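Record passed on underneath.
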Amino acid sequence: MTPAVTALRAGFARGLIELRQSLTGTELLGHLFWPVATLVAIFLLRDRSVGAGGFTLGALILPSVLGMFIALGMLLVIQHLTADREDGTLLRARATPGGIRGYFTGKLVTVSGTVLAYLAILLGPGLLIVDGLDVGGLHSWLTLAWVLILGLLATQPLGAVLGSLISSPCGAGYLSLPVMGLISISGIFYPITAMPEWLQWIAQVFPVYWLGLGMRAALLPDPAAAVEIGGSWRHLETAGVLGAWALLGLVVPPIMLRRMARRESGSRVAERREKALQRVG
């Protein structure tokens, strides 16, 4: 067995252990808060009509927020990365053969599992409380599957790149502000065609918009595409943009993580730990 395969297997196993730990105890309550709060909002908006097609705001929002929660995986990666750098986990990973590769694999497994749990919490009850969805055919579930896979590969490596550029948990908090701003202009909560054209172009550069569009294409009937750009689900463009971000994610994050790990040292970890203790004190 090659060292690369050994590192990947170790990372996968570690990711499953971390996922199981994060979905138990008090951490489970934190994970449940946002999906449940989102379901409540969808329930309250489920009967509001949008446009002349008779579609409800709840039916448009449910698939969109599925895409949003996939995209929020990048924030989870950032949070994990900054915390692990703070407590020396990343430094220990660097000291083992293939450690950075295994570490990155483990984080992808942990965050992907968390995102899948979020989607299950949203989609299960959502199918019962929202009318107007079209999930009766195999095509819908196949579309949901490929958009989900490409979305995970497109967004989480981006989170690793962003996380490698900041040096503290406070920086991770600040970084969440532009991410939330991007979500707000990406047609998640209201059709993007209602926004200025220049904002539409900005949103289409990033994967968040395409995740929402892909999920709407999977779960809504074809006439709902009338409120989208060009009046189409644009499957090829969705696959192309998400695929491009996914390919970028296969190349750039390992380089950035290795570069960041080389800058780590025991003295830096001790210094950050001392500062953290002072903040607590």
Remarks:
- The two ends are 48 Å apart (CA to CA).
